[in-house]
Design goal:
single chain, mainly alpha, about 50% helix, about 5% strand, elongated
C-alpha cells in the first residue's frame, strides 16, 4: 500500500475575498496564523479557532487595525475584550480585562442559553407560520399555473404561445407578491 500523502490546504494570505490582491491587515506569520492547514490532521473535522495561539500583542494590533478600518475606535476596549474571550471561550473567567458584570453575563449565556426575550420567540414563531402560509400559497399558484393559461386562452408554451402570453402569465403569477409589496 502506497504511503498516503498529506492533504494541505494553502491559504492565500496575499489577497482578499474578491481576489484583487488588496489585503487590509497583517499577513501570515505577522498575524500569528499558519499559512497552510493540514486537512489530514484535523481528525475531528471541526473548524479550528482562528484566534487561538495568536500572541496578545498581535491580537490587539489586529483589533486596532480592524477598528481603524471600520471606524470603531471608540469601542476599541470592548473589541479587545471580545477578542480575548473569542480566543478561548471556555476560559473567559481568566480574562483579567473583564469586570465581574461582564463575566456574570457570559456565565448566564453559557448556563441559560435558552433564556431569551419572549418577543424573540414570538417573532421566530410568527415568521415560521408566515413562511408556511407563503409556501402553501406558492404551491397553490404552481399547481394552478399548469392549467389556467390554456383554459383562458393564453398558453405560454406550445405552438400558440406568444411573448404577450408569457408576460400575462408572469404578471398573474407575480400578482400576490406585487399586492403584498403595495400594502
Amino acid at each position: 500500500m502506497a504511503e498516503e500523502k498529506p492533504i494541505i490546504a494553502q491559504i492565500d494570505m496575499s489577497s482578499n475575498e474578491y481576489g484583487n490582491g488588496e489585503y487590509h491587515g497583517a499577513v501570515g506569520a505577522e498575524r500569528g496564523c499558519p499559512e497552510s492547514v493540514s486537512l489530514n490532521r484535523n481528525v475531528t473535522a471541526r473548524i479550528q479557532n482562528p484566534l487561538a495561539g495568536i500572541p496578545r500583542a498581535n491580537l490587539f494590533k489586529n483589533v486596532e487595525d480592524f477598528a481603524l478600518e471600520v471606524g470603531l475606535t471608540e469601542e476599541m476596549h470592548l473589541l479587545q475584550k471580545g477578542a480575548l474571550v473569542a480566543q478561548d471561550p471556555p476560559a473567559f473567567e481568566s480574562v483579567e480585562l473583564l469586570n465581574e458584570v461582564e463575566k456574570e453575563a457570559l456565565r448566564n449565556e453559557v448556563l441559560h442559553k435558552w433564556r431569551q426575550p419572549r418577543s424573540l420567540y414570538f417573532t421566530v414563531i410568527l415568521c415560521s407560520i408566515g413562511a408556511a402560509v407563503q409556501g402553501w400559497d406558492q404551491t397553490g399558484s404552481n399547481g394552478a399555473n399548469l392549467s389556467w393559461p390554456v383554459e383562458f386562452g393564453v398558453p405560454d408554451t406550445g405552438e400558440f404561445a406568444t411573448d404577450y402570453n408569457t408576460w400575462i402569465v408572469g404578471l398573474v403569477n407575480a400578482g400576490p407578491y406585487i399586492a403584498s409589496a403595495l400594502l
